[in-house]
Amino acid sequence: MEELVGLREGSSGSPVSLRELWGPCPRVRRAIRGGLEWLKQKVFRVGEDWYFLMTLGVLMALISYTMNFAIGRVVRAHKWLYREIGDSHLLRYLSWTVYPVALVSFSSGFSQSITPFSGGSGIPELKTMLTGVVLEDYLDIKNFGAKVAGLTCTLAAGSTIFLGKVGPFVHLSVMIAAYLGRVHTKAIGESENKSKQNEMLVVAAAVGVATVFAAPFSGILFSIEVMSSHFSVWDYWRGFFAATCGAFMFRLLSVFNSEQETITSLYKTNFRVDVPFDLPEIFFFVALGAICGIVSCAYLFCQRTFLGFVKTNQLISKLLATSKPLYAALAALILASITYPPGVGRFLASRLSMKQHLDSLFDNHSWALMTRNSSPPWPKELDPQNLWFEWYHPRFTIFGTLAFFLVMKFWMLILATTIPIPAGYFMPIFIFGAGIGRLIGEALALAFPEGIVAGGVTNPIMPGGYALAGAAAFSGAVTHTISTALLAFELTGQIVHALPVLMAVLAANAIAQSCQPSFYDGTIIVKKLPYLPWIRGRKISSHRVIVEHFMNCAITTLAKDAPLEEVARVVTSTDLAKYFLVESTESQILVGTVGREELVQALRAEPSSWTPGHPCLRDLLAGGCPIEPVTLQLSPETSLHQAHNLFELLKLQSLPVTSLGRAVGSVSWVELKKAISSLTNPPAPK
Amino acid sequence: MEELVGLREGSSGSPVSLRELWGPCPRVRRAIRGGLEWLKQKVFRVGEDWYFLMTLGVLMALISYTMNFAIGRVVRAHKWLYREIGDSHLLRYLSWTVYPVALVSFSSGFSQSITPFSGGSGIPELKTMLTGVVLEDYLDIKNFGAKVAGLTCTLAAGSTIFLGKVGPFVHLSVMIAAYLGRVHTKAIGESENKSKQNEMLVVAAAVGVATVFAAPFSGILFSIEVMSSHFSVWDYWRGFFAATCGAFMFRLLSVFNSEQETITSLYKTNFRVDVPFDLPEIFFFVALGAICGIVSCAYLFCQRTFLGFVKTNQLISKLLATSKPLYAALAALILASITYPPGVGRFLASRLSMKQHLDSLFDNHSWALMTRNSSPPWPKELDPQNLWFEWYHPRFTIFGTLAFFLVMKFWMLILATTIPIPAGYFMPIFIFGAGIGRLIGEALALAFPEGIVAGGVTNPIMPGGYALAGAAAFSGAVTHTISTALLAFELTGQIVHALPVLMAVLAANAIAQSCQPSFYDGTIIVKKLPYLPWIRGRKISSHRVIVEHFMNCAITTLAKDAPLEEVARVVTSTDLAKYFLVESTESQILVGTVGREELVQALRAEPSSWTPGHPCLRDLLAGGCPIEPVTLQLSPETSLHQAHNLFELLKLQSLPVTSLGRAVGSVSWVELKKAISSLTNPPAPK
């Protein structure tokens, strides 16, 4: 194009060509061409980064949609098989259980054989990475295949295994972003840049959430709340852009595929709009939030304990170490047997898919009122028009089934989280919360059949609204986030319950956050990943703690005038990755840091200088051993809060402490953690 | 209570009292009492801060509601007067104009006489404060009365003056928070703490927005986007809590006052839910966003230019300096004369209040289609059932009135922003955007009367949806925020247009942010408030800039061994607030900073030491002149990004740069600004 323009402009100087004569108004045309050129430059200047974000969003949407499509086919095949296999109980049982058992064990075996990182949701690991810890190979593109294939199998097992998609999708999105970033930096030939990578990590996480739920707002907010403790408005904007591209593409595909007429939300509800709830119901919503908070504490505690048990129990840990697919198959068999519809599964609405679970729980009618006088029979086949029939049993009524569902799913979910397969744990928690809300909502609807405020027009209670609030509150409490409230609105396409849902989520969070670490933090603790705790409570007294009180004073420094024997002794006797380099043994003025490996290399390369004449470290450094400059240093008077902020914002691992230029100590996560824990559990007074 | 419990427990040791015998199961009762005590402690432990936030939210809601109530009465009185005064044009004109003129000039005179800080929205100043600049007295509680009274008058002038409420409410909220904070710290007897104050500032801003719009989600997000460039999830949670309390209380009051049956959104819409828009309409939504972006650039440019003109023009600036109420009255007279309904106001829908403006623009019918065949007469009185009649004129049709409205309001709004009264500028911009959207939506509805996708069931285009998108996009572009999209949903209680509105806002922001500073930044520039620019574009090359390239090397240091004459000479010849104290003239090792005032005081206090014998600075310091420790220092190798992050996150003003402990320079906002501007406009290559 550039060349072409050049040719033409060149030709205007040369004898007038036929083409030049032909076209009218050469000046206008040149002006238009110039304008287009300017626009092109302008767009490309803004672009670059934005194109990258758009690509990421569109790619993730394609993957998400394709995966959904494939899963839909597999699930349909399973349903068909189960329906057509005849009335023999054994055959039916086998057709119900073999499918998920095979899928889950394949998922576990396949993904674990490629990479051990592919199990679980991946969010805890990403959270750790965002604080600056480098987990080698965790974002390698070769994990991608393992995760995609494994996740597809997991999800194809459907509501039997009852696992979700969000966590792995966040991981997938970050992997793709990291890969695109590497390609990009290679293409423009620049060196990789750490802070740019971190920016991208947050954005990619938002895209992951947004392409699963088609919810850009809550996607970005949820990923921020879960992933980081500080964030910049700049990242938030970029995240919005990428998430919107992803969500749009994801929904567009389903319109093109004639699943929908236009772009709408994923779990559309039909709540009454004019008076969605009577004012006094706010109280019940808050109470529901509190209940969800308490249940979430129990869930988090049991989940963490059981995860710990699985790690420490000899039998299970041996099984997991030697044959993960077997463990997965056993767990899947238990889960599938329980959910076998003609058996116990009948009381668990186990014929519903996870989407149908949500759709039915968000139903705007009250089942309790509808079944008060008439009792529908338990249908032999799933009735897509009346999904809620699945929740009803003539003897147990809907309260019995809902309560049984909650009790059973509580431990089944905990069991499912221990299976080493790629799977998300958000969606099951969301549905579980919806179940809690529905149960309470139905109870209220039965208690107040005319609505709470009696008057001319009665507004009966909608249990669906409680299910919505319960879903948001429980998932918010388990993950320690508030944006689940927004997610509930984006998922359902209605925002009429804005304040009650938000208040329920706040109540649930208040309880959960003060009693238990979040689901992701809990996993970080159990998996023993490094993390930096918050300074909770923000008591005034915490502002008085300064670095001097908690820094590590026992640092190893290398003086420039130290003899090489001394250097060799230090290097061999300690195993730090970096040493502080000081000007001289006497002055101890900090110059920079020297990597251990470089030192060892330099020492090996110069065996000749080991002869007497006392060569010192300075000679070694002059010989090519690189010194890294210290870009930031603390003083003993820096406050704990300032230091903590610095570590969080700049993703630091450790910082030197200098006083009058002299290296007097260092602060790393270890010291910070100790200082923070001694704030909450103050040591005995001295 | 504590005492009472103590007494009782004491009594259990003493001979058994009558009461003790009387009550059954003393052990159970003690256990219950203990449990309650534990709960109390637990709640109070979590509490403290939360109570404070709740108080803030509830107080602001009360103020907001009371103000709305008072304004409603004043406006009703004005309407009554205008209606009852008879048909004489002169009397009607007078009754229409005198009211707002009197209110606005009183607002200006009253508020300015108490404090000059009360004018304008206050958001630019708060934004500056959040970056760490101290604006003396800006948050003093005495401004409160001025702002409340002034704002009430401004808003009572109604849609004639066409100004809003958000900005001043943010300011009010922050004032109250600062006051409560001071009371709180005094009550518990602790020293004030800067970082706690900053936390509170962000939260209070969120409460301000939330209590105006009853929109907690967008309240917190909008205030974060407008106010800061980094924020912590901790502040965001606290903000949510406070904003929810505020929004709940605000809506609760209106239910108690029988204005509504239950808690709903402020500007309820009735958009079609099943197919709110056809897929191809997405394109028009994005185009609308782009148009809003372009118009917003024009608006921002004109607004800034006119504000500059008012400041520099001799006549106007003299008028503003000597008699602000007169200027206010003149401007109000112009605005009121234009909006006089039987005159030009007829084409401006000027009989509608601002709320009615929005309600009518978000109407879900297409006016163009409704007036295509029949033309309703212009009603003599406002018809509350058919507000949109106001927008219709038989000769000009609705397109004429809408276009005229936009053209006139464009400059009227700019004129209104120069009046020195407490007023918000968000709401008028929001309505203006809705007007743009409505105009385009009506045009589309007329162009495609059957809807875009022809088929079995046609879905006619809803211009109300475009009005919603236009409002969000234009206000988002002017303020450089994305959360206006969410605000649009929270205000209307419907979220069916989620993706199209978000895409329109993104398009508008892309254009506005790349061409013009935001409304608030523009005001900061015109008012010459200090600010720290962003590092835009985040080019890779910017990561290579290090502190050494741009630091201020010409620093004034005071050595401990400097003779006092030297110190006195330095203090008198320079006017820095702080001097770097170094160990000795030779070593230049940084020890800390000394305040100029303390130095001067110490120098004055010791005139005896001016006698020969060469006393040096060290003696002065030993004599009680305090040294402030340096808690953080940069190295010449620190990157620009790191330094910028540090300044933003820790709200710093300046930092020393040390190399090997020696003070070699300093970095302050001035240097950072220069470095950032040279990134975007690179200097000629050396």
TrEMBL record, chains A, B:
The keyword Transmembrane applies. It comes from the Eukaryota. It is found in: Basolateral cell membrane. It is a multi-pass membrane protein. Residues 547-604 form the CBS domain. GO terms for molecular function: metal ion binding; voltage-gated chloride channel activity. The keyword Nucleotidyltransferase does not apply. Keywords: Calcium, CBS domain, Cell membrane, Chloride, Chloride channel, Ion channel, Ion transport, Membrane, Metal-binding, Repeat, Transmembrane, Transmembrane helix, Transport. The chain crosses the membrane at residues 50-70, 90-110, 161-180, 201-224, 236-256, 282-306, 326-349, 396-419. It catalyses: iodide(out) = iodide(in); chloride(in) = chloride(out); nitrate(in) = nitrate(out); bromide(in) = bromide(out). GO terms for cellular component: basolateral plasma membrane; chloride channel complex. Homodimer. Interacts with BSND. This is Chloride channel protein ClC-Ka isoform X1. The gene is LOC101676060.
